[in-house]
Amino acid sequence: MMTNVIDTALINLQKSKLASCELNKRTKYKIVLITEPYVHDGNVALLDKTVGNLYYALNEDPRACIRITPDLNPWIVNEFTSKDICCVAANIEGRMTYIASAYLDINLSAIPKMMSDLIDCCNQKGIPLLIGMDSNAHSALWGCDVSNGRGHELESLIAEKDLTVLNEGSRPTFETVRAESIIDVTMVNSAFYNTMNVNDWQVLGDEPSFSDHKYITFSWGKYIPAQRQYRNLKKANWSSFKELTKTNSLPIINSDGSNLDDCALSLKNLIDDALEVVCPMRNAFTKKPNPWWNGELSKLRSEVRHLENVKNNSENNYKKYRKSWSNYRKAVNKAKKESWRNFCTKAENAKDVTKIIKSLKSKSPKGIGLLKQADGTFCRTPKESLAALMDAHFLESVEVTDQEGVDESHNVVMNESAPDDVEEFITPTKVRDSIGSFGPMKAPGPDNFKPIILQNLHEEAYKYISDIYKSIVRSGYTPSLWREMKVIFLAKEGKTEYCVPKSYRPITLSNFLLKGLERILQWYINEKIITKPLYSQHAYTKGRSCDTALTEVVDIIEKAISRKEKALVVSLDCSGAFDRIQFTAAAAAMKRRGIPKTIEKWYDKLLRERSVEAELQGEKSKRKPKRGSPQGGILSTLIWILIMDTLLSTFEGKAVKAIGYSDDVFLVITGKDIATLVNIMQQSLDDVTKWGESNGLVFNPDKTSVVLFTKSTRRETCKNLYLKGVELSYSDSLKYLGVTLNKRLTWTEHVNSRVKKGMQLFNLSRAIIGQNWGLTPDKIMWLYTAVIRPMVTYGCLVWGKLLSATARNGLKRLQRQSLLSLSHPLRSTPTDGMEVALGLLPLDLHVEAEGIKARLRTRTQVNDRWDGLGVHRAEGHRRHWDTTLNKICPTSLPMDKITKVMNWERPLEIKNPDVVIYTDGSKETGNVGCGWAVCVGDTVIAEDFRYLGKSSTVFQSEIVAISDSLLWLISNAQKLGDKKSCLIRSDSQSAIAAIYSNKIENKTVLDCVNFLKTANKSFQVTIEWIKGHDDATGNEYADYLAKAGNSCITEVTEPVIPVPMTTIKAKIEDLIVERWQNRWDACEEQRVTKHFFTKVNVKKCKRLVKLARQDLNLLFQACTGHGLFRGHLAKWRDVDPTCQLCLEDEEKADHLWSECPALWNERRERQSEHTRQKYFELDVIKFFKAPSVRDMMTRNGEETVS
Question: Which of 359, 677, 820, 1015 has the fewest CB atoms within 10 Å, measured from its CB?
Fold first, then answer.
């Protein structure tokens, strides 16, 4: 690999946009020391971040900045970074080097204390230091004719600190028409000067910078750029890979597990060799040049450069230069703007939109700088920062080297009592399913195997892996290769500073082969051991969620308020929960819950013997943890909630209720006497503290919130609460799981905060939505409905009832922003009219619909247990939603939705079946039926069909048809004699996929799977897909029977089978639409819109947002009357409202549509069979695009602008 020097530049941009654009073209420089960059909203802007990483003091209107390429492994040195100084550390030839850019304000001291401290630090530590600065000082040391006072101060500093000035010659670095001087200085300390070879220092006087300062360039040091390599897994030949991963050559696994290390290594080598054949490593390509640059800009820049060289020769030349410079600047801005608009307009899908939004939102640091240590001092090197991170997140861990690793493969001790059902539970099918449960492109562990690789192994490989898993469980020994884990540190969002280790979260990346075993054991524990939810724990638990935690908390508070009592709440946060877990506590928690000893011992040994390795800017650290469980580990969450259960369960049946969500603990007690509540709560806090100390866990008083909930408006005097001796202050509100609860349990504050956040995101998206460019309407609607609206409606189960007028107005204001951004109609266009024209449900009604659906989901988990006491119970959120929900879906109604159940049935291979069964389902005119036929050879030996009522779905009918055929098969086993193989053929791929899915969430499917299990005891049964309506005789006959089933309407009690969630949700949506219709009927305004739309329709929204922006704009103008019509414009402009076409009536949208005699022919054309039918909106657009109407509206628009 070729060795290169580091090309470096120094420039003062004078806050110029054009100078910034010019710098973006200078991509050859690895490092650019920048002063006075262009700043927007407190941060550096316009500089291309694809050329190199930018470092500066965030949100401080910085005047010093550094651009540096990432291959130099740069760090920002926070200790020596401020508004006017930026310091970055880079690893040059294996040695840490500091690079600084400084702006010395002429109105401040010539030598900032921070710069002096930086020089002292580097000299004391022997760290090479390079400083580029705009000194605003004159000195003969850097070529000035005379030295001024500031220059003398810098000269003294240079002599005292043993610095060397690199400036050569006397060419001005600052030049205007009236003056020129040398004020840009480059200097280094002795450590730099003696180790780095500096060459070609020069001032580029002939090259334009579009600033009054000139570019200074030089080269120094030597380095070998790292060539990044990767595998393009998306283009791998997985068929060939599957054949190459047969396990013939792998060693046989010893019964005692003594060669597990060899087996794991051989498996890894087999996969690596196969990968190298089908998907070899490739060198990564460099990034593409700026997309906005073009040939015209190159010509303009050359012209500017030429004129800059002769600008001082005459006044005429200077004028030409200024004009050329202005033209170039305008051309650059225009090119960048057009490129950005094209980029936004060409966003094809949700993924593209998400990327754009993330790029606009991102404010977190790109890398980790030199961090602040526990004693308050800053780290000096990346190695120290890495050590600080490891110390903070891996408590009591010890540094190890590869040589210190202990090979325990010969010290395997077999578990005394490995339960047979654990080994039986591990099968090749479960291995395949466990690996398949991970996203295909998830970040790999140390072996670099992404899940997509392991998901394409040969069946023999899954059998071999299952044998390894069984041996691991049997022996309790994990191969050393799988015990090595990689750690990456991710910045936590919303932190005010990122110079402390706790601002980062450690994510452990273990090998997916180990995660596969963890997943299988997790399934085993959930299926065999912990079959019911843990007491009051809502995280990582089937059937529970944030909604169930919120509804339980709010229900307790509502109950107290309705009884005119108080609710004292303390919200606790366990600091570094996963990092602090004691190994003994994890083992005790597993033992307490009856988890098999073999699993307990294996996991305990894994925690103790694993190693974690982190890398940061070329520095590596390998530790052996003494406590904690891997964040990102499959079993880590399960172990944590088992440990937390030892705390939460102690509150069962006590006055203080405890609600847990992962590491958040919510304590609440209700009653009338405040003093009593405080005393009892204090005892509970003391108990929590003792529990934490005994388990090595810490509850942070700074993150603990205390609120006394009451309807009373007077200030209550409360005795103080204490946590670990720290006084806890009372607050008026707290945030729990993202929902703001204030002391009176009103929701306006929460709704306003969510609306504000939604507005901020919309304001951010204005950069990608223009009047005639940017995201298309369907992409904007996706952004609103899939990103912004769910963010706002989150938690509406507890806050969505009986919204105040202020809250409703806030929600309406947010939705209005989305409607206006779709097509940019007139600002006066009414929100209600746009919602009806587009078919977009008002946001407050959408909140109501989501609240009812959330209650439907949580009703079976958190039932209403109200005892009838209290004067305002009807105001409670559960009772509020149940009032509506019970009309649609009474609790007695059998529901098809169930809590997830694992399923291990998989299709068999049957080549020549003795029996073939054809099944089908059908729905016509709202009636549902199913049918099936049993064939032996060409003879139909049995058939049946039945009616399934009106509430069933086609999917259910397909499942029921298969179930009925299986029941017949089970009951006729003896009649079939020696016929033992059966093939069931269905034309429903979704039904077959549901039956063979590893997770079942429907009772109908679960019943079918149970029938399949029973049938497989007597037969070999599998289900196969057959193409429907393809002239296959058996399938056509099953279709005939299914239609006979839905046509033989019999008197049945609805529902015939459990009601699916889709049916209930459809009824909820119909109810909400009905409420919208009632609101629309009661609306006394919107006369024009009502002329066009008397009925509301939510189904048309998806179709209409696919219209062009101009067509949607025209629809809004026509259907609301707020458009370029003189009758409307006359309301605020002095124009004649008379219709220009007929001169008889006011020119309004409804007049043109229904009455204007001049448009009789156009009106006759649109009065067709489609009028007010599915394509009515298109007829409206077509009518108002007629030449006479379009020309009239264009003239009105031009007059309005003038």
Answer: 359
